[in-house]
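Input (structure):
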């Protein structure tokens, strides 16, 4: 999937990019993808990252259409920092939502698509084994991956059997 889907808002042009994976296309309506990407970049502006200076934003789309935002929240005690994706998940769950369709992730990196860290992939897995993960750049270009692609042969709640 490639080309310019045309929406411009807040200076961001949203464009699907087929550079890395031409066969994963979002199941969402293009306007839903566009909005989610813009929201992830807005969430990025809230990042608290005085130590890494690496801003990350996430916009998590729930099954009911509601969107939960998250940003990375670092701490002077470095190990206590939290990623944007997990912030969004914790916010949604703590507000009573556990079913999700997609998450858009935004950073300031211009020359590559940044993907969720392993810990975030596993936290996403707890609630959605088939989530669409939309990786974005500041210019609004994006690629779509599934959680299954990023975390194959995963361990989830249904595997927790006691003997
Ligand atoms: N970070 C995220 O928020 N999400 C990721 O998936 C990767 C990394 C944050 C954590 C830390 O605040 C900063 O980026 C640098 O690692």
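Output (sequence):
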């Amino acid at each position: 999937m490639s080309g310019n889907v045309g929406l411009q808002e807040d200076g961001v042009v949203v464009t699907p990019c087929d550079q890395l994976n031409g066969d994963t296309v979002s199941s969402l309506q293009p306007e839903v993808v566009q909005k989610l990407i813009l929201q992830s970049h807005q969430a990025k502006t809230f990042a608290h990252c005085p130590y890494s200076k690496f801003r990350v934003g996430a916009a998590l789309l729930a099954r009911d259409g509601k969107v939960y935002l998250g940003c990375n929240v670092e701490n002077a005690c470095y190990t206590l920092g939290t990623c944007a994706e997990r912030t969004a998940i914790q916010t949604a769950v703590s507000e009573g939502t556990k079913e999700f369709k997609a998450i858009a992730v935004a950073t300031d990196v211009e020359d590559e698509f940044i993907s969720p860290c392993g810990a975030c992939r596993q936290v996403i897995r707890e609630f959605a084994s088939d989530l669409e993960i939309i990786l974005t750049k500041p210019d609004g270009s994006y690629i779509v991956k599934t959680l299954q692609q990023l975390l194959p042969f995963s361990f989830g709640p249904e595997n927790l059997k006691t003997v």
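Notes: The mean pLDDT is 90. The chain is about 25% helix and 25% strand.
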